[in-house]
């Protein structure tokens, strides 16, 4: 079941970021985001993108993170996922 695996990978990425390993999170979540998008699992794609943005912030890549997170907010609002913009 791809959705369960993607959820696990997103959670693992969040843990890695919290543990001070955001580079691993970024490497892990790029294919997760792509797969979730391909499978049209919008909620998981957005969760992965949020975790990705947080990892960028943790690395200190503020400008890149802000750009990613603004794009996520725009996409989330357009698809009716307002909760993701306030997480």
Explain how this protein is built.
With 87 residues, the protein is mainly α. The chain has one domain: Tetratricopeptide repeat domain (Serine Threonine Protein Phosphatase 5, Tetratricopeptide repeat, Alpha Horseshoe). The protein has helices at 2-18, 22-38, 42-59, 62-78. It starts with a helix and ends in a 9-residue tail after the last helix.
Structural class: mainly alpha
CATH class placement? Mainly Alpha
Put simply, the count of helices is: 4
CATH topology name? Serine Threonine Protein Phosphatase 5, Tetratricopeptide repeat
Query: How many beta-strand segments?
Result: 0
**Helix share, percent:** over 70%
Short note summarizing the structure:
With 87 residues, this protein is mainly alpha-helical.
Give the SSE map.
Elements: H1 2-18, H2 22-38, H3 42-59, H4 62-78
Helix pairs in contact: 1-2, 1-3, 2-3, 3-4
Write a concise keyword list for the protein shown above.
Serine Threonine Protein Phosphatase 5, Tetratricopeptide repeat, 87 residues, mainly alpha, 79% helix
């Amino acid at each position: 079941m791809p959705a369960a695996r993607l959820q696990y990978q997103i959670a693992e990425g969040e843990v890695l970021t919290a543990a001070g390993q955001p580079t691993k999170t970024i490497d892990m979540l790029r294919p997760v985001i792509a797969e979730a998008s391909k499978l049209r699992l919008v909620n998981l794609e957005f969760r992965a993108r949020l975790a990705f943005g947080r990892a960028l912030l943790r690395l200190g890549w503020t400008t890149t993170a802000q750009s990613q997170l603004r794009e996520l907010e725009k996409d989330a609002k357009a698809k009716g996922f307002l909760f993701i913009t306030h997480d």
